Amino acid sequence: MPDGMRVILTIVERGRGAAMIRLYTKHQVFLHCQFPGRGTATSEIMDILGLGSSEKDVVLSYTTAPAAARLLRQLDSDLRGSVSAGGIAFSLPLSALNSLAAAAIAYQTEPDRKGETTMDSEQSAKSTLILITCARGCTEAVMDTAKKAGARGGTVIKARWTGLQDLEESYGLKLQPEREIVAIVVPDELRRGVMESVNAAHGLRSDSQAMLCSLPIEQLVRL
After folding, report:
1. 46 CB contacts (<8 Å, ≥6 apart)?
2. How confident is the model over 125-151, as pLDDT tens digits?
3. CB–CB of 166/173 below 8 Å?
4. Which of 18, 55, 104, 114 is spaced 20 to 30 Å from 41 by Cα?
């Protein structure tokens, strides 16, 4: 696989995902996957902040590191406001990708501009994406705990767990397969506190049956 592949995760209001994909495609980011999500803020808070519906479009976009860096810099400057969508976009490093997909991405993306770096070292690892997989119906309780530890909000995606048998047999658990994934972006200094608080209150042996992981964010832009 070519070195330096990235995924850009974009979360915007429902109905704006297609417009973001069209914008990204014009700027050398071609491969996308879109699915629905839901914000965790209450309707009252959404009205106060003028953010509209809590229903979200979540877009995963696969590209090279230089293309991701260029696009996020442009979203934070020249392209800001070019698509009337509020939300967040950030890049995550990929450690592996199908060789055919990686080759196609590298072929479609214009050659890297000489002297252009993928990111500023000072911008690196300032934020973290926390993914919390919990039983359906437990999202509000999980988010309440996360917010008490400093998190501001998150996005919920419906999911289903598979491959539970070994985990259940090893630890005497009975896990519910119907899941919700809560995606929360926090500053690095809050990551440990949020994860420890959620795990202590909602871990696998609780009713929420939460499993947590975190990924480092390279660049982040608020739209």
Report:
1. 39, 52, 53, 54
2. 489 999 999 999 999 999 999 999 999
3. no
4. 18
